[in-house]
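Feature request, filed as a ticket because there's no other form

It would be nice if the structure record came with a short human-readable summary line next to the tokens. Right now we just get the raw output. Example of a typical job, pasted below so the devs can see what we mean:
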Amino acid sequence: LVTIGKEEFQRIKLKNAGIDFSLFSIINVIDCEDKKPFYKKIIGSLGKKASETLVCGDKIHTDLKPAKELNCITVHMRYGRGASDRNKGFESFVDYKIEELEELKGIINKIGG
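Raw output as currently delivered:
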């Protein structure tokens, strides 16, 4: 989990969505918008391929674009701040689109998580 927000808030969002927080063995609370180095570090430390890694975010440019550049699977959370990214020419960085965080469980199951 890579976030600029507060960890406790992320825990609450995941709990409300019925997503087990234990899926996230590494948590990085960062103070910059460049998430790509953090994604790269986590993928490497877990010994996974980027293509086996799912990144979900509401901001395409800062959350999903760097993940897609690494070849991760990307999910655009089209809610709140992410709702305004719908038609900004960022579609090539998005594999899946969801309106509610609960939908993430179906995508995880679909890709074999």
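Something like this underneath would help us a lot:
The chain has four helices and five strands.
The mean pLDDT is 84.
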